[in-house]
Design brief:
Number of helices: 13
Order of helices and strands: HHHHHHHHHHHHH
Structural class: mainly alpha
Number of domains: 1
Helix content: 55-70%
Radius of gyration: 20 Å
Largest sheet: none
Distance between the termini: 51 Å
Strand content: under 5%
Shape: globular
């Protein structure tokens, strides 16, 4: 693991490698304390950074949520879906990924606390577990009508993908089959996009098998990319998932490069196959 010791950040199945590093906010000085030299702007920033909505946003892994939503929205546009449909698809992806982020931080709170993982308000006690659960439940109540608003069939596939992601947060993730939940989750995005339309009664054409397979392969690539930032901590916990096994042999830097190249190649294949299928129709 010598090559991996350069990596000190932790990642889980639903963690965001781009999450900002956030330290425990200092306790505000007593009002009128002459030793408090902070400006009003500094006090305001500390107050905002420690507020409930900001902490909930941080625990939702916002960069991953935005990236997933944007990716699904772009895919919908590429499939010649109208802008309003693509916007609903993107919103569904953002909310669904936020749910996965809250659930991941709840499940991993003890481990994150033990490793002092930065940017984890649930683990460091700044955000109560109950508050995260409350946000998660509200997110579920929102994502259900969002997903089925582009068709009940399409929405059912998205909700199935979300269920697989939640299940992946608690099972398989520590062993050699960690990639399975990622592959299944992303493969289910293909029928969500293909069957969608406008309104609950909308029914599109089923996706081609090739696209389902490529989406599944994309999920594996995303899993590898996201795992790189947590290899050292995961190895210390005795995990044996596939990215960690390869990371021991290649080192974190090479694993990141290989994972990025693989994911990029799958994305190119999705574009090429999607364009070819579109021309045939």
């Amino acid at each position: 693991m010598a090559k991996l010791q350069r990596r000190t950040r932790r990642d889980r199945a639903g963690d965001d490698p781009g999450e900002p590093t956030t330290q425990q906010a200092p306790e505000p000085a007593a009002e009128g304390d002459p030793t408090d030299r902070r400006t009003t702007a500094q006090r305001l920033r500390l107050s905002v950074a420690g507020s409930g909505p900001v902490l909930l946003l941080q625990a939702s892994h916002p960069r991953q949520a935005l990236a997933t939503g944007l990716g699904l929205g772009i895919a919908a546009l590429a499939a010649d879906r109208p802008a309003r449909e693509a916007a609903v698809v993107a919103a569904t992806g953002v909310v669904g990924q936020a749910i996965l982020g809250w659930h991941n931080d709840i499940v991993d709170r003890a481990t994150d606390a033990r490793h002092h993982t930065p940017g984890k308000p649930v683990a460091d006690g700044r955000l109560e577990v109950g508050s995260a659960w409350y946000a998660l439940v509200l997110g579920v109540l929102l994502v259900i009508p969002l997903s089925i608003s582009t068709g009940v069939d399409a929405g059912t596939f998205y909700l199935a993908a979300l269920a697989v992601g939640l299940l992946g947060n608690v099972v398989l993730r520590r062993g050699r089959l960690s990639w399975v939940s990622w592959a299944v989750q992303y493969a289910l995005y293909a029928p969500f996009l293909a069957l969608g339309g406008w309104g609950g009664t909308a029914v599109g054409e089923p996706p081609e098998v090739a696209m389902v397979v490529l989406f599944g392969l994309l999920g594996i690539g995303v899993h590898f990319l996201r795992s790189v930032w947590g290899l050292v901590a995961d190895d210390a916990d005795g995990w044996t998932y596939l990215p960690l096994v390869l990371g021991r042999r290649l080192g974190a830097a090479r694993l990141l490069a290989v994972s990025a190249a693989y994911t990029g190649a799958v994305l190119v294949a999705i574009v090429v196959v999607g364009t070819t299928l579109g021309l045939r129709h």
